[in-house]
Specification:
Layout (H helix, E strand, L loop, with lengths): L1 H17 L7 H11 L1 H4 L4 E5 L2 H4 L2 H22 L4 E8 L2 E8 L11 H12 L3 E6 L5 E8 L3
Parallel strand pairs: 1-2
Antiparallel strand pairs: 2-3, 3-5, 4-5
């Protein structure tokens, strides 16, 4: 069922982009960022959208969300040794929520965290929050959450 939802969402985004003279929405841009990461990752990220992400998110939040997605996928490619990454974008309860989860080796206890600090700063700039930690079954889960009014 999840796979079918992803396929439908992708088809919707592609058909919407093909028939519109407007700049692509968040959905199409996230799909492009994920597509751009395939070579570095060695596989395609699974992407899921929930809610009207193209209509409720401000341009400023879109710009930040795309940068966060790029950084998160770059971190997975460089550090995680993952074979799967899920990118979930949702508008729910007045928030834009971006969740990136991988099945990799997890975050080391020590090490440079400048990329993660940047993601936290981007969330704080919009009145939101950012968390990073271990996944239920290993790997790492990043959650970037900002108010839709941002």
């Amino acid at each position: 069922d999840d796979t079918i939802k992803v396929i439908r969402s992708t088809i919707f985004a592609l058909s919407e982009h093909a028939t519109s003279d407007e700049a692509p929405g968040l959905r199409a841009q996230v799909l492009q960022v994920c597509q751009d990461s395939v070579e570095a990752l060695g596989f395609s990220p699974a992407v899921r959208f929930t809610g009207p992400v193209d209509f409720e998110v401000s341009d400023e939040a879109v710009d930040h969300a795309l940068a966060v997605t790029r950084e998160a996928l770059s971190n997975v490619a460089r550090h995680a040794k993952a074979s799967r990454v899920d990118v979930d974008v949702a508008t729910t309860d007045g928030y834009l929520v971006l969740r990136v989860a991988d099945d990799g080796c997890g975050m080391p206890d020590a090490g440079r965290r400048s990329g993660l600090a940047n993601l936290a700063e981007r969330a704080a700039a919009l009145g939101g929050e950012f968390t990073a930690g271990p996944g239920e079954n290993g790997g790492t889960v990043l959650v970037w959450r900002v108010p839709l009014e941002a």
